[in-house]
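Worked Example 4.2. Consider the chain below.
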Amino acid sequence: TEEDSLINTQMIQPKPPKADLVKLMVNTGESLRFEAKMVNGEPEDDCRRFVIAFFPDTDRVAVYELQQRNSGHMAGKFREKSRIKNPQTGRYFELRDFYVGTVVSICAQPFEIVRADEHCLQYLEEHSDEFPYADPTACARRLIPISGEPEMRSEEGIDPDRLKSLAAEAGVDLVNHEVITLLRTFGMDTDSGPVVCGPRVLEALEGR
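Applying the procedure from the previous section yields the following structure tokens:
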């Protein structure tokens, strides 16, 4: 690894880099799974689906392809589990780099993350200090610029797409993961689908 090479240049008798023992003890066996699609613009890849697995004990990443009928590709391992550099930051991928709605580049291929499984969402909510997109209060604060909108006071709730549109008009670019967090915390079901309950968001803002 790069850490090994750096230490080799600094020490006569190299030692392996120290592992974060607390991180290893707390997160050993943990795996966070995100579903993604390939968005390289090639029509033959449109239907391909993948699971990006992040392992928070060692910050390693693995990618697996899911079986899709008539895709022409076999299900299985796309990228071995290892630490991978994020081309956008120049650093190794970290937990905060993965969230619903973003595009990450792995093996020179762009992957758009389209969802996360329930265990992953719960883990991120429990670690919202590291992952603010899963912090309901932080997400609610992002809606302060539209808190005066009549739709925010309606008991009927706001459709997620409409919420993103309203926020964008106010200069706030909500990412899909933030919308998911708002739905999980302040959402309610309607005949037309889940909506964000504006009055509940405003209550949370008043008590912030």
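The mean pLDDT is 90. The helical segments are 2-10, 21-27, 118-126, 136-141, 160-169, 176-186, 198-206. Compare this with Example 4.1 before moving on.
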